[in-house]
Amino acid sequence: MKNPFNYLQLATGENFYDRREMLADLRSRFLSGQTNVVLYGPRRYGKSSLVAELVASLEKAGVICVSLDMVKMPTLDIFINAYATKIYRKLAPVRFGVGQVASFFKRLRPKLTIDANGEAGVSFDAAAAAMGQEELSEVLDLPQKLASGRRVVVVLDEFQEVKDLLPEDGFEGVMRSVIQRHGDVSYLFLGSRYHILRRMFTDHNRPFYKSALTMLLDKPPEEESAAFVAKRFKSGGLSISAPAARRLVTKIENIPYYVQQLAFETFRLVDDDGRRMAGPEDVDAAYARLAGFNRDQYEQLMLNFSAAQKKLLLALARESATEFDDGYRSRHSLGASSTVNSAKKKLIEDGHIEQISGRCRLADPFFAEYLRS
Ligand SMILES: Nc1ncnc2c1ncn2[C@@H]1O[C@H](COP(=O)(O)OP(=O)(O)O)[C@@H](O)[C@H]1O
Ligand SMILES: [Mg+2]
User: Fold this and answer.
1) Pocket of ligand 1 (CB under 6 A)
2) What is the number of the ligand 1 atom nearest to the C-alpha of 17?
3) What does the mean pLDDT of the chain come to?
4) What pTM does this model have?
């Protein structure tokens, strides 16, 4: 049977569940324009998938969407070239010559390029070192200049990474001042290092303060996740008992990525056995198999943590916490609260632990299992 689950690709269409309200809300905001939104939440909860669905539905309604993943933009020079090319491809009229493109820039000298796939793009005749605030400002202005009355949405995934592209809050400062004049273009900022991202938009000293509506993407309701698992099993030609579907969801703490991964593995195990129905013991067996897969990676990871970080990880694997009070710290021999707090801060920034609505826990349920074993 073809496995109906997929944890490696963004979930869209049939393979996408829940999030209907948030999708409808975002869709209507971007259709009417005049909003910028920042959507934050831990990795693997489904931000990029949600936005892929959103983009598909906006494009159907005639809105032009341009998406860029900032994780792939390590330098300002790379960003400027990639951004110009993306915007040009989506927004420039066909047979738009280099002369017309050049008219949008004062400092930058664009060339039209053709890549190996025959796709047109823009690049600039400038040394990487020459790229600075002015050049950034010109290129960020491009979508508004090319929009000519059409509605445009620019999606910048893992937006917090821009902080490394210019010193201080340079990138944010330039971008804020450019985009506040953009009447036809709305911006959707996404990010997983959500403490950093949230600070960018809620700290009153930062350029983006109050410039976008802030939304948190939390987990879907557990019943929705269980119903999705059952429905997909059926569409793949097998079935799963209701208790098994519930067990699957709770075992990996209802995180969409792991729901897909554990469901994939459970489906595979039952199918390979030539059976038609998955029960709770199949879920447990699949879980044990997955927990084993990553041992090597976790061992490697452990080598790089400080002692305080390791102790905190071990503690959180056994007991999630809202507060590291005296009781918690002494139960887990964690020492002074200042030590715990700096370990916590680093682990959150690196995505190993997450804190949502005050509660701290490990981001990866299989890593937690490894630490408990
Ligand atoms: N709404 C959803 N429905 C089904 N699966 C989902 C959903 N959201 C996320 N997933 C699963 O989780 C994985 C990670 O989602 P992704 O959108 O990349 O999360 P994020 O961008 O928050 O890190 C996807 O590849 C998919 O397997
Ligand atoms: Mg993502």
Assistant:
1) 6-7, 9-11, 15-19, 43-49, 192, 256-257, 260
2) 3
3) 94
4) 0.91
